[in-house]
Write a structure and sequence with these properties.
alpha+beta, 8-stranded antiparallel sheet, 5-stranded antiparallel sheet, 35 helices, globular, DENN domain-containing protein 3
Length: 1203
Amino acid sequence: SAVACVVVGAANEKLREVHQVGTLPLLGAEVLQVHAPPFVTKESASSETHGHAPAFSRVQRRRSFIKKKKERAGIANGETAKGSDGGGGTTTEDISVPKDLDLIALPQLCFPGGLQIASEQREDSYHYLVFTDVFGNRTHAVVVQYYRPIQSSRLYTAYGICVISKYPYYNALRDCLSCLLTQLKPSWMGDFEERVKEFSAKLALVPIPPPGQLHVVFNLRPLQIGLPSREDKDRPAIDLDLHLPFLCFRPRQLLQIITSLLIEQRVVLLSCDWARLTLLAESLMLFIHPLVWQHPFVPILSRQMLDFLMAPTAYLMGCHLHHYEEVAAETDDLILVNIDDGTVSSSWSDGIDLPDVPLAAAECFIKRVEGLQVHYDLEVCHLGDSTEVNARRAQRKQWQSKLNTHIQNITLELIVNIFREVHDHLNYEHRVFNSEEFLRSREPADQPFYKKVLDTHIFHSFLRDRLTRKMDAFTRMELSTRTEAYRLRSMTESPRRPTMQELARKYTSPESRLSKRLGASLPNLGESGGSLSPQRPVRFFKLPEFPPPLAYHYVQNYYQEMITLLGKAISGAASGDSSLLARYHYLRGFVNTVAGKRLDALEDFQNLYKTDTDIFPGELVNALVDSLQEGEQALADRRPEIKHLISRVKRDHERERARHVDEGVKRFQLPKKHMQLEDFVRHVQESGIVKDQGTIHRLFEALTVGQQKQVDPEIFRVFYTFWKETEAEAQEVALPASALEHLEANECVFKLSSSVKTSHGVGKIAMTQRRLFLLTEGRPGYMEVTKFRDIEEVKISSAPFLLLRIPSLKIKTTLRKETFEVNLKSEVDLWHLMVKEMWAGRKMADDHKDPQYMQQALTNALLMDAVVGCLQSQKAIFAATKLAHFDRMKLEVPLMVPKSTSETLKHKINPSLGLTSPQAVDVLLYTPGKLSGTLSGDGNPKLWCALSDGKVVVFDAASWSMQQNQVQVGTSRVNCMLGVDRQQVWIGSQDSVIYIISTRSMSCNKQLTDHRSEVTGLINEHPKVAYSCSAEGAVIVWDVSTLQVRKQFRVSCDRLQSVQLCNGTLWCCKYTYKHKNRVLKITSGCTILLCREQLWTACIDVGELCVWHLREPTKPFQRIQLPDCAGVTCLIKVKNQIWVGGRGWSSGKSRGKIYVVDAQRHTVEKELVAHTDCVQALCSAEDRYVLSGAAREDGKIAIWKVE
């Protein structure tokens, strides 16, 4: 680890003056020594061997470290600053001082209260520093001030030793300094510099552990010191006590401080103890994770730096408590946080004017904090005291680590509860956040908070991560704590309105409303922690004893010893514990890099693909590849796996650079110019009204009826405003209790007429997604008019009234003899269109068992309403007819669903929900559930659906709700999927990689990269072995637990399409364009299936199946003609049936068809039609159901009952 060490104190001449004066002044501190890597180099080693230099040279060459400092008298023991080799060499600027480290300000920060001469020995005192460079990268430091006697006097002077690291290892570095002091105190001043240099060189040998469960431990007598690893790539290591803020502040004060950071105020921490300032500031940074503070962060300001507080930007700074009055008086708009008193105040008034954290989130946080056990003494009062100091420290660390995890869960849950619903208002395609819409949907009391937060830099970068679908701790917790109701709601794409359940809640007291919302956020968070990654047992890697750290050969031997130890750890680790193996490989790769063994390092990093790609250090490996020398490059070219790694790293690096170019976030804005179709589509999608392109094209037609094909921005504004006002009115609908009783919990009122006369009295007609009902006036009551599925006829007629004829709507239903009539006056045409569209949508949804038709019909009806509302002209109703999509379909082609299809079809789902257009379903896989399923439904069976470009959508197969919007596996088409040992799903891609998804974490963190062309088939016979094949003919046999290659061979062919196992024999389906030897003559696009002693084959362009005897594979003994079939794409065996998917004709139109064939009698039993495009994928769910997926025009999944 790159560690630098700086010694700060008073110059010798100043100390002599003090001795003569005899008073105890404050002195100016100066930098006395700087020790920074590299401490040893190969060049220094060669000169050592010639001169036989000892391992520790007592006379190290000194360097000057601050430009413009003249040669001056040596400090520690009177040496001169010239080269100590007697050659009087000129001083050179020290190239090894860490970049961006400001040595000018360092003395002030090491002694922020000034350097005080003392008349007696004082206790050692520690504090902590953070430096931030211009790019926002932080460097961390621990400083110890300790006193030594001034020569030949009774006075004592302080020295500050400052250890600086890129990593925030505050506790570990403090303990290292404690060990150094035990050596320094008894030593004489002449050894001082040498000891500090050796100490720095030792720390520079310590490797930083990779993210995950492996910690690094080393001995620095008398203590054993541990470096904890980071939880994951996106978090810093946590090596401080996170409960300190809870000891200083009550939960409500902590919420005020967190609020002031989230709304980017100027925050000043104050304390009499310098150490508290940094530890609290760093804890606060961790509490708001994954939001990242973007402003000046200076936890300690020395006396001379107080003018920093005049900065005009937001900041978080800290200073000594005795400056409180001065700071409060001089500067306005400050939030003053007094750590010692536990108070939060403002510099401009007695009170504090901060918006409150959203109520539900705040209550939940306070409840959690009350349950925290933050007193170690209570934890250990039943235990005896250990006599061994390291055992005592380990016990305390274990307690602290557990508490830190618990606290992180509580603060992460707070952030999740505050920002949970942001993603409902994101448009991923155009990278837009609809902030107005988000604000409007907040509780009125919470709006002041959100108004301020939405305008901050910190929130903007949080949005950027959400729009790139970053799978971080926030996303994991947000997904795992979603309620089932929320999951089901996200399965519908209909415009949002409050459901009956929400309306019922609205009429109850705010307290019960809060507890309902709290209830939604409180589950799933036990000690193990919501969904920070599940707590794995921590392992420790103990480093060998340090060598003499300033001799090159000793250091190289030390690296070799570490590499050997890691090799032993790798061979000793359980083959199934890939996570631990990944950490060992990472560490060994890192040590190999430092030791100059670049190819060995690359091999270690290559192993991360099989064990855990999440910790793959892309930048380090890229730099390693760039530093390969010619000889190494030639050797790398001879090793295919390293050659493959190098080309892959280069490709990924280029892609990453291209990706960063366009990662802005836009706020939704109304258009200012006329829009052609393409612009109109984009604006409607950004507005969040509707995403589906087909629907938007029809809306464009409606808004441009009888005119030039472009939409006026003013028309768009009126349309958008009307839509939003209708949405807002729905929030205010007041329904009598009788209505709430009759309607289902998830029903919403979408349209309410004005007060009208009906055949059942005066009232308002209301429309939900299921029915029409009348809200009677006078005595408020409910009367059902009809459910949409019960309608027989809808028509407009005119009723005579005095001398006028008033148009009325007549609705005839199957459940009532008399017709329901309502005098809708001017609204009649619109209601007529809307009711007919809803009726047609309901009928199609019922016929096709596809609830999405109903959702679409509802969207169409509401768009008609908005079109009529914004056009306000003669042509408005004609324009609205352009949106009557299902009503028109009903008239054009009465879509009769064949009886056999209707009886066998159970349900349909849409995996492209939330995308702008349907995607082809390329592959389907069903994985059975575990009986010991957890409460969150993790144990339920799942349906995995591969869409285009490496998107995999996962459904809970118990409720058919979407479990996860998408897991991304590369960016190429998925060719095959396989469930392996109930814990993994293997996915073969066109980019030649097999991606492995853990069914528990639902993340893809392993890859098998041994294939050299697209992976075309995956299969396994028993849990321990899997087979894969790729297009160029390679077949690989895998050990499932270790992911090592057991065996591989090649099949000579033009393309290897798939592999299948039958009775211990592996069958390969290949294309060969020339047939000289005896090869099954199969044309391109072939599918094979092995069933008992038979082989079934089919082709993409022929409507027949061929059945062969396995013993006699020269020609088929049976051909089965499939009626009205144009070609077959997939075959599966279910019980004693063969299900065949392909394309054919039905009612004269091309359709996706499924044929069910009896496997013994070889007859077609059923012909099923449920898709408007070719059936591309079939899979069986435990032989009870069959699932079929269709090509792009249709893009749906159908679920069929198996007889």
